[in-house]
Amino acid sequence: MSRKASLSGFHEWLPAERIVEQHVLDTLRNTFELHGFSSIETRAVETLGQLLRKGEIDKEVYAVSRLQADTDQGAARAQDSQDPNRLALHFDLTVPFARYVVENAGHLSFPFRRYQIQKVWRGERPQEGRAREFTQADIDVVGDGTLPFRSDVDVALVMAEALGALPIGDFTIRINNRKLAEGFYRGLGLEDTAGVLRNIDKLEKIGADEVSRLLQSELGATEDQAAQALALAAIRTEDTSFVEQVRALGVTHELLEEGLEELAGVVGELHRRAPGRAVADLSIARGLDYYTGTVYETVLVGHEQLGSICSGGRYDALASKGNRTFPGVGLSIGVTRLMMRMFSQDMARASRSVPTAVYIALTHDDDWSAAQDTAQFLRARGIPAEVAVSAEKFGKQIKYADKRGIPYVWFTSVGEDGAATHQVKDIRSGEQVDADPATWTPPAEDLRPQVLEN
Amino acid sequence: MSRKASLSGFHEWLPAERIVEQHVLDTLRNTFELHGFSSIETRAVETLGQLLRKGEIDKEVYAVSRLQADTDQGAARAQDSQDPNRLALHFDLTVPFARYVVENAGHLSFPFRRYQIQKVWRGERPQEGRAREFTQADIDVVGDGTLPFRSDVDVALVMAEALGALPIGDFTIRINNRKLAEGFYRGLGLEDTAGVLRNIDKLEKIGADEVSRLLQSELGATEDQAAQALALAAIRTEDTSFVEQVRALGVTHELLEEGLEELAGVVGELHRRAPGRAVADLSIARGLDYYTGTVYETVLVGHEQLGSICSGGRYDALASKGNRTFPGVGLSIGVTRLMMRMFSQDMARASRSVPTAVYIALTHDDDWSAAQDTAQFLRARGIPAEVAVSAEKFGKQIKYADKRGIPYVWFTSVGEDGAATHQVKDIRSGEQVDADPATWTPPAEDLRPQVLEN
Fold it and tell me: For B119, which of A44, A387, A403 is closest by C-beta distance?
């Protein structure tokens, strides 16, 4: 991370960093699969029509066109930022997933549990925590027509477990519920619930006094209504005691009751199964307007200013096909944002920069094929082994292995009788012992590079 | 594969197909890592200047531009297909790798062994075997200044092993050597060796007579020279006996000798270690002009018309930085091309469409949390488990599991004394037995979806 990207906003990792990233992605994949989520990948491009269905993000989109098309009849079209058939790179994995579900509905079984780990692209101004190309890891559960609320609990449990298995230290999943907030505002007599949410979303940035002023001046709230909305947003509990705190505010509404019950369901179960991982935080608004119930965001403890590293929510109609709708709930991890922070704060590192566990030194150039035999014995038992490409001085060969953190160097010498004797050296301790390529095995922790939490 | 892509040339797999693809990618990764190759990924975009360094492929490139830029000062530039700073999607992994090596040379140890598995994009006309978005899996070894010839043998061995581990049936790696061919042509008195190669490359398409005619009319070869060039291209042996066959043609040249020795080195070692996997095929030319020694291509036996599924070669200067050059040798598997053929010919399939091994049925909606306890016991021991989202009739829950190929359904009933009894049903055999969530384990082959070769 001391290196500067040669193209601003497009990060590339060195081999040792990539090992940490692979560990993170493997861990996520394993957790998702243990919970029965299926992997899918969607194409990198969508039509502008698909991407801009929700309206708001056109400035961030990368359009794609065949270079050849520029110079012929495609020229006009290549410039038309309104053409809905024009292709562009996806900026998240939710919109492509919605299209995939609609297109393949006849081939899927619902509720459909899928995970998707892919790169996405946004033409934003690069800054700390933001990249133009980055990897997301999403899970969603989508139903056909209906989806029980229980899935809202399920996906949060899966993500708490997945994030808990990563070398990222402590985190907090902050959970709220749109129904709770909207019901409360309506119970208060504030009908422009989206407007209230939009202002509450500014709390961290502009403070309570300014939000109160805006609620009164922009939305016509009374001072008391504004105070009540702010009191709601101030509630934050690790267990379900938020329910009593909300009730104490004296507002009643049917939707509020529904929201309280749902949020208590999610937070209660998380509190029981993953204590300390989640809080009910009634200030969480989440910008995107298609969420209809539970909303989640996640901060790394001690790195709150990084923003959310895992967000999502419930949407009652992510996708629809004729009069068939597909409600869903999901969460998305910003893997690249996490990696950037992990590297810049030195939170984790790989025990070596290559997969190789054993480096087979060459005594003579002619021994290469015999050395490959040794390597083959080791690989057949799952031990990554690499043969030197030329018979340089042993000191140089050991240095080559040491530089990459390869723990073992293997030496073979052929006696006058043609019999080979083998020795293996642990270059960390210097210890060198006789070894048989068909049976010698390193300790399990030396087999593959380990990712060490600092 | 009976489904049509919603965007021509951009294929997306169903969950069960994706399991087969994941198996292929995992197998490749494992083989590459056992041989000490490091993973890297490069950004999806390169500058046009980088991409078009070799000249020939501009028509196939997808240019990328921020949608916003279209409507302001970027408009002119977004249209300029000559602007070397303009961004475009990479069309292979070799050009980006070369840039990566030059940029990060100070952070890498040479010879640098890397593998890279990523999507690439080409704006070609889609047809059988060709897609506009496809996954490539590359290995390369790159040296700093020099790279021993031995690496040419090494990468071919790794690929023979990697392809041999895939459910794709028989394949043949066809190997030739540029030095051999060029030395032979020079020894014959034909100096335009690139011209001869270009015509020999057309052999399969237009036949020997027509190639002979072109060699004479275009390159001024005599009938005898043309016959000799064609005689060379007709040589094909599984072992090193091609050397004698070439010598029997009576042509001598220093470069020819070097080429013969190198090709014998590769083919001899492959014949010894992976018998039947490789042939010396002296008709192989490979279009790209930067190869300088060994060239490889690979066909699936019985699917030769699909074209090469794994190609590459030796390049003496893939990349350079000032007067420092980085010679390399590598091979690239066309994973998507392989997947398309595997699916269209029904060569392999997943044993089920989801990772889930055990589906936990619900007797009452209130049991959900208790069912999660059971699931957690199973997952902790690496058994993928999924809990039903609602307590529907058992028949319906079993049908849901069966439809996805989940082998086991788990039932829990709580007695009047509050004690739970557990049973697990193998829905293939119908057998149902008592089971303890803390100890019950399915056979290893039921743990994760298996990929079965048809």
Answer: A44
Same fold across A15-43+91-349 and A358-453: no
Report the alpha-carbon distance of residue A342 to residue A21 in Å, rounded. 10
| Class of the CATH domain delimited by B15-45+93-349 | alpha beta
Spatial separation of the C-alpha atoms in residues A416 and A420, rounded to whole Å = 9
- Test B79 with A79 for CB contact under 8 angstroms: yes
Confidence band (pLDDT; 50, 70, 90) for A69?
low
Is the pLDDT assigned to residue A366 strictly greater than 70?
A: yes
The 8-class DSSP code of residue A199 comes to H
Q: Is A94 annotated as a binding residue?
A: yes
Kind of pairing, strands B451-453 and B348-350?
antiparallel
Instruction: Find where tokens 């492959």 sit.
Output: B270
Instruction: Give B-chain residues touching A386 at CB under 8 angstroms.
Output: 35-36, 113
Q: Which CATH class name applies to A15-43+91-349?
A: alpha beta
CATH of domain B358-453: 3.40.50.800
Lowest mean per-residue pLDDT among A44-53, A78-87, B1-10: A78-87
Task: Report pLDDT digits (tens) over A8-40.
Answer: 899 999 999 999 999 999 999 999 999 999 999
Q: Delimit the domains of chain A by residue range.
A: 15-43+91-349, 45-89, 358-453
pLDDT at A411 over 70: yes
Q: Report whether A397 belongs to an annotated binding site.
A: no
Around Cβ B373, how many Cβ atoms within 10 Å? 15
B353 → closest Cβ in A38, A390, A403? A38
Segment B29-51 shows an average pLDDT of 96
